[in-house]
Amino acid sequence: MVELGPLLERLLAGDFLCAVSDDTAFRRLQDEATRERLDAYLRPLNRRLASNDEGSVYFLAWRQLDDTARDQLSRQLAETVGSLLPMLEWLQLVQEALGRDGPVSPGDVLKPADFSSRCEDNQGLRERLERLATDPFFGSQSEQLDAQIKQVFKRLRERGYLSQPHADRHYFIATAKIDYLIELVRFIRDEEQLPVDDQAPEAQERLL
Questions:
Q1: InterPro entries attached here (predicted)?
Q2: How far apart are CA 148 and CA 16, in angstroms?
Q3: pLDDT in tens, 37-82
């Protein structure tokens, strides 16, 4: 298991691993024997390797929901729910600002400069971006468009939704954690029959 140590550390730290966030780790996790070895190690920790339905992203889940697992899961769920609406609004904003036919997908390249130029020329998009950037999830304190966009992309990178391959190049790549988020929203909406938000715009519903 020594050779899998770094991979285990990332999973236990809560990382979501996909072809964008870490292609080498993702390819290792696609090997069934490797997944079985990891699960055998994780079993005494009450954890298991999990993936979304499409198998585009791997992460850890609890094996059994004991009191410790429930406490941590409750905290994670509260954090995730707090990010759902801002993330859905961001996905819709990307779709409209960049003229996309559908929501962001893993591997899509996003450039802050593209957002800046589109929002500068569209007052409606500019106002929506300002509301989004100042949401507690993104936490921008600036009134400047470029600084707001920079903060949004920074936050998305920190949360694992975007990857920045080169720190000195201003472009980002969407990771498969976005697939996980959309799948989670669909589960809440369809399986549990719970609306994400009764006041959510219809445009956000079309994302799903």
A1: MksE
A2: 26
A3: 999 999 999 999 999 988 999 999 888 877 776 777 677 767 777 7
Phi and psi of 192, rounded to 5°? -90, -10
Contact 132, 152 (CB under 8 A): yes
Task: Give dist(CA 208, CA 202) in Å, integer.
Answer: 10
User: b/e string for 27-65 if b means 16 or more Cβ within 10 A?
Assistant: ebbeeeebbeebeeebeeeebebebbeeebbbbbebbee
Q: In what order do the strands lie in the sheet with 172-174?
A: 109-110, 172-174, 162-163
CA-to-CA separations, 75 to 99, 104, 162, in angstroms, rounded:
36, 27, 23
**At 18, is the secondary structure helix, strand, or coil?**
strand
> pTM of the prediction?
0.80
pLDDT digits (tens, 9 = 90+) for 133-190: 999 999 999 989 999 999 999 999 999 999 999 988 889 999 999 998 888 777 766 6
